[in-house]
Recover the amino acids of this structure.
């Protein structure tokens, strides 16, 4: 999958609805809906399997007056290519980290160029079947007055949602470093331990920002509404949050 995206949008985005509709082959009403979000983007305009298709759409967007970019398939972070951090240590000049697989990396603070803070959302749907017994007048009459009942099966969907705070750290050519609030072990020497995981996680982000104040920081992915606005109607945050982080990283690191 390749992504065509627009970014650096003006304050009066609705003025571009006709141009967006023409570039994407959608109605002006749909284009207005896509552009109805705060900020300047980025915004996923199209997703294509074919490379020629995504480049053709991007070309039409540029011709229509948009700043447009292609996020290629191999630029979209997969979990297998990421470094999922389990342990960390804040040394004087570098961040030492260890993955759940026992891999080690050392990242100099001065090389950190971007921190993306967001919320991962995992949805789960379960099917529950209930049996309900109800009084049956017809059966009672036929049985000569014995109280009879019938059993009715009721099936319903139960949807649950789990949320977890995370941040991605980007540093030069290093793999994307992923810190998840619930997966980290907060036992690093010298780390000022807080009363909760939430507080520890916030403190870690604060420490990293203090040690590299020149690194860009973006937290728009903390809110599902902004995840949805960025991904548009084509991609769900529950399944394609990695597209949102990869797109933001590509644009913010340009």
């Amino acid at each position: 999958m390749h992504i065509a995206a627009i970014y650096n949008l003006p304050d009066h985005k609705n003025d571009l609805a006709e141009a967006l509709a023409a570039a994407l082959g959608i109605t002006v009403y749909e284009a207005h809906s896509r552009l109805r979000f705060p900020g300047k983007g980025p915004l996923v305009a199209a997703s294509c399997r074919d490379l020629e298709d995504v480049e053709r759409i991007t070309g039409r967007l540029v011709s229509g007056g948009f700043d447009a970019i292609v996020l290629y398939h191999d630029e979209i972070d997969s979990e297998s290519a990421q470094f999922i951090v389990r342990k960390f240590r804040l040394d004087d000049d570098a961040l030492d980290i260890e993955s759940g697989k026992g891999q080690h990396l050392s990242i100099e603070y001065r090389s950190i160029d971007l921190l993306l803070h967001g919320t991962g959302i995992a949805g789960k749907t379960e099917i529950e079947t209930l049996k309900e017994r109800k009084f049956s007048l017809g059966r009672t009459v036929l049985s000569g007055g014995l109280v009879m009942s019938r059993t009715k099966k009721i099936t319903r969907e139960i949807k649950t949602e789990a949320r977890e705070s995370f941040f991605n750290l980007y540093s030069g050519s290093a793999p994307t470093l992923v810190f998840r609030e619930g997966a980290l072990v907060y036992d690093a020497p010298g780390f000022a331990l807080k009363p909760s995981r939430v507080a520890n996680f916030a403190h870690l982000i604060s420490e990293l920002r203090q040690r590299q104040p020149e690194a860009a920081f973006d937290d728009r992915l903390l809110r599902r509404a902004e995840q949805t606005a960025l991904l548009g109607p084509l991609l769900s945050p529950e399944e394609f949050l990695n597209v949102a982080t990869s797109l933001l990283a590509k644009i913010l690191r340009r």
About this structure: DSSP finds seven helices and ten strands in the chain. The chain has a mean pLDDT of 90. The two ends are 22 Å apart (CA to CA). The first strand starts at residue 2 and ends at 7.
